[in-house]
Design goal:
about 90 residues, mainly alpha, rod-shaped
């Protein structure tokens, strides 16, 4: 019985050695988003006009400062949006 077992294992081992299997190479295309670093020029923060206003100014002057600051902040916001759109497309 022992010799039969050794003979069977020897034949199985010889069978494995005789038929080497070649690796099967399969090429697949996988669409995965890859992060890309976005280089954007530094956008300077705008000047805050109302912070520089004097306490002696009238209500009309302060309103003008706030309106000017609002326009500047809208422009700054549009610059940031444009930079972001350039990175996301």
């Amino acid at each position: 019985m022992k010799t039969l077992t050794i003979a069977i294992f020897s034949l199985m081992l010889a069978g494995c050695i005789c038929t080497p299997s070649k690796p099967e190479i399969i090429t697949q295309v996988v669409k995965v988003p890859v992060p890309v670093k976005c280089e954007v020029a530094q956008i300077e923060a705008p000047v805050r006009y109302f912070d520089q206003a004097k306490k002696e100014n009238t209500l009309f002057d302060n309103t003008k400062y706030l309106a000017a600051e609002n326009e500047v902040l809208w422009g700054y916001s549009n610059q940031l949006k444009a930079a972001l759109e350039g990175c996301t497309k």
